[in-house]
MarR family transcriptional regulator (Primorskyibacter flagellatus), 149 residues
Amino acid sequence: MMRDVAMLMHETAGLMRRRFEQEARPSGLTLLQWRALSLLEKSGPLRQVAVGEALEASAMAISDLAERLQAAGYVSREPDPRDNRAKTLSLTADGARKVTEMHDAATGIFTEIFDGVTEAEADALRSALTRIKTNLGGPDEPPARGSRR
């Protein structure tokens, strides 16, 4: 019984990732770039290494991502004031506008994904997934209801 639930979770996560990738593609973004811009919008300027850790991506992938986002005008890359070998990424005004577009697109996707799911079902799912996440060693606090995570 639990194996089929785990497989369903895995397949659903993959379908959700694919759906977000489809939405990001016309804007010229990858899903990882989309996630990085959202992270910078939420957290403010961050060192590249912190972005990599938060997104669970390699230093090489984040370096490439930062170069592409900078070339697109969505982020600035500056030497970290405490360590000039490190780079800090900051969202630009164009990047902030792109994040607003992405949030609008995400709202539409979430509406599509959760069509027909009742509040009670969403609450039960949130509770079960939080328990599973905790069992796997993740933080035990669920995202706030209505959050953009």
About this structure: Residues 28-135 form a domain with the Arc Repressor Mutant, subunit A fold (CATH 1.10.10.10). The first helix runs from residue 2 to 24. The chain has a mean pLDDT of 89. The chain has one domain: 28-135.
